[in-house]
Amino acid sequence: MTQDPLTLYKLIVLYMLDRVSFPLTKAQVGDFILEKEYTNFLTLQQAIAELIDAGLVSAKSNRNRTYLVITDEGRATLAFFKNRISDTIKEEIDGFFTANEMELRNEVSILADYYKSVTGEYEAHLKAKEKDVTVVEITLSVPDEDTASAICANWQKKNLEIYQYLTGQLF
Predict the structure, then answer these.
(1) Pairing mode, if any, of strands 133-142 and 24-25?
(2) Full 3-state SS string of the chain
(3) How far is Cα 147 from Cα 155, in angstroms, rounded to an integer?
């Protein structure tokens, strides 16, 4: 039986989201699918948008990242149609997660955002999570947007060092 390619791309996205216990970003999903040349960027964006519109995937945006999570309806749909994804594609996805799970998990577990406060200063809000537990959460008030932006960028790179320093000093 021939299937619509867009349906296959949607099933691949659902399968990917079902294989992990943490949200994936659109970029992480896209990196895998585009690297394997299953489809192009615009078609993938269409597939993800249709999954979100249908309630099979939920999306939450933070700055320049959109986090994707499979919903219960998405899991039910995947269970019904999983046999339409070839074993080869499933093996490639499983291999991708085996090789990259820690890196992918770390990428979505380290959160940084900033905003202008009512006092006119900027607040950089930094968070590190492990599974669904917040390990550390810091809010820093700074005088300008450039500083807040730099703090957020550095948090992505240096969060482990900062966490170790804090725990070393406080315990």
Answers:
(1) unpaired
(2) CCCCHHHHHHHHHHHHHHCCCCCEEHHHHHHHHHHCCCCCHHHHHHHHHHHHHCCCEEEEEECCEEEEEECHHHHHHHHHHHHHCCHHHHHHHHHHHHHHHHHHHHHHHEEEEEEECCCCCEEEEEEEEECCEEEEEEEEEECCHHHHHHHHHHHHHHHHHHHHHHHHHHC
(3) 12
At residue 104, what is the residue type?
Answer: L
pLDDT reading at 1 higher than 50:
no
Provide the whole-model pTM: 0.71
Query: pLDDT digit string (tens) for 53-109?
Result: 999 999 988 766 788 999 999 999 999 999 999 999 999 999 998 888 777 777 777
Q: Quick one: angle between helices 5-18 and 72-81, nearest 10?
A: 120
Q: Which of 43, 48, 45 is nearest to 10 (CA)?
A: 48
Which has the closest alpha carbon to 105: 24, 6, 166, 164? Answer: 24
